[in-house]
Amino acid sequence: MRSRSESLEFALLGLLSQSPLHGYELRKRMSAIFGPFRALSFSVLYPQLRKMMEAGLIDASVADTSRRSRIVYVITAKGTKRFETLAETVSPDTWEDEGFEIRFAFFGPTSTKNRVRILEGRHRRLKEKAEILRGELEKSPVGIDKYLEEWRRHSLESAQREIDWLEDMIKTERK
């Protein structure tokens, strides 16, 4: 994903490819993807939805529910094609933290070949990160804060756990 906007577009198209949804439900499902600590505000969501409507990727209709009307968003044929294109696009952004998280949430529609490429890219990226952290821990400059050193150790352990998990995922995908 080249930008946050494109990442958000990909995730919204992915959700809408599963079923039509109203804004609140989209926000709730996006929070499930991003996790509880990175909330998606309505001030970000609705301008993105408007931009996608203007591009012809989604349509909106008013659905009357028991108390009030809600705007329900649905993916268009153009939006489906765009989602398929994005799902098959692999770039270094797809294995960085946020890009990988969003791509992994919609791994199903991604071809096996590209799933493996993304997993391998993420694996390489984390191996590089682990080597940097390992080097920093080995040379630990005198006077470094003990909490910073502990944070680096924790980060290295977390990276190593994800590396191990990725190796298992890559083996599974290659079968």
From TrEMBL:
Gene3D superfamilies: Winged helix-like DNA-binding domain superfamily/Winged helix DNA-binding domain. Residues 12-84 form the Transcription regulator PadR N-terminal domain. InterPro entries: Metal_resp_DNA-bind_regulator (IPR052509), Tscrpt_reg_PadR_N (IPR005149), WH-like_DNA-bd_sf (IPR036388), WH_DNA-bd_sf (IPR036390). Keywords: Methyltransferase, Transferase. The keyword Nucleotidyltransferase does not apply. This is tRNA (Guanine-N7-)-methyltransferase. The keyword Transferase applies. One of its GO terms (molecular function) is methyltransferase activity. PANTHER family: CONSERVED PROTEIN, PADR-FAMILY TRANSCRIPTIONAL REGULATOR. One of its GO terms (biological process) is methylation. It holds the Pfam family PadR.
